[in-house]
Amino acid sequence: MKKIYLLALTILAFTPEVNAQCTGGRYASDIFTNVTVTNDVNFGSNASFTGSTTQLDMDIYEPTGDTETSRPLIIWAHGGSFIGGTKTEQDVVELSNRFAKKGFVCASIDYRTGMWPIDSVNAIKALLRAVQDMKASVRFFYEDASNADAYKIDTTRIYIGGSSAGAITALQYAYLDKECEIEEFMSISDLNSLGGLEGTSGNPGYSTDVAGVINLCGAVARYGWIETGDVPMVSLHGDDDGTVPYGRGQASVSGFPIMYLDGSRMIDAHANDIGVESKFYTHYGGGHVVYFGNTAYMDTTVNFIRDFLIDQFGCTDAPLQAANAPGGSAVMYQQTHCGLGFENINNTLISEIFPNPSSDQMTVVYGNDITLSEVVLVDLSGRIVESYDVNGSSLIINKNDLNAGVYLLKSTTTEGDVSTSKIIFK
């Protein structure tokens, strides 16, 4: 997904039609009065948690009378703690109508819900089913664009988002992209028995690439799944959310705490550390899904998302809702990332690394009487990106053309002692 996102950015940067579409208030203002809704469009089917077949439908919202032939799409997923909810929930319906009036096409999808018993194991399975179904909905629009082109979608501008469980679904869709990342929660064989990360819910053979994520009161299982080069995101979250944590905390289903998740505060802090674009607004004092049925909160939510999207398109319209400072502090923790051993970081050979994180250069100071045979910098895929010769007790590491992100500095002495240190370039 990372390479595709970079390619999409290049295409957008050199496609004059995209910027031209920003004129006349399109995407920034309500330039359409009416919205045409096509209900119950089938995009696939799959087995529910009980084994019965669930038909997967969505409602598609289009600006009435629109003649544009290459339109951005937002796919919305409803909330409901993965045990209930439908595509006609009030908040996703209002979001779909509001953005359709600005010139977007919106789809509000159903996905498989339900789990029993209610516990962390079955919650992960329910989440994966939802991700698989959302991927089928994205493939539906790629298939349509390649054939009938009934919905006139620009597939380089497909955004996924949702409310609560729907936001959790969209976040995992975008950033859970390696099988090894989920091994903490289930075996690969169990994952494959569910259909793998892509799933088998419909429209096989078509792309599932998306351009960004709209996160409304969502969370990820591990913020480390977000990596340099991943797609951008926009997030809104109440700092008094008692259902999905604002920071790191336990998420609940029907009032029962299920598992620890990293909420929007953690996601935004990590994204900023590694250079992934993240726009974040905190509803101070707000609980869970405060915009549901509340016009003032919904206005703020729509305006902030609108600002993010038109910025992605290169529009020059003035922002309507400024970001605010996040609440509290994000207490980050060491991560294990697909066997790279972040949990086994050992700094015994190093006395100091500063500044860390850094935007351009950092200094590594080794202990006394250490002779190094090898010092390498490794990225999160395990690839060596730099090698260094150390003569003396310190090393200067320059960012140069390295991407922003998290790296491991592996230092080995002539006696075979090894030190592994996490460093971050902004």
What does this structure look like?
With about 425 residues, the chain is of the alpha/beta class. It folds into two domains: about 1-315, 3-Layer(aba) Sandwich (Rossmann fold); about 340-425, Sandwich (Immunoglobulin-like). It contains eight helices and 18 strands. It has helices spanning about 1-15, 15-20, 90-100, 120-145, 165-175, 190-195, 265-275, 295-315, and strands at about 35-45, 55-65, 70-75, 105-110, 155-165, 210-215, 220, 235-240, 250-255, 255-265, 280-285, 350-355, 360-365, 370-380, 385-390, 395-400, 405-415, 420-425. β17 and β18 form a beta hairpin. The longest helix has 27 residues, at about 120-145. The model is unreliable at about 5-20 (pLDDT under 50).
Instruction: Estimate the helix proportion, in percent.
Output: 10-25%
| Gyration radius, in Å | 23 Å
The DSSP helix count reads 8
At the fold tier of CATH, the topology name of the largest domain is Rossmann fold
Give the neighbour order of strands across the main sheet: 1-2-4-3-5-6-8-11
* Shape field: globular
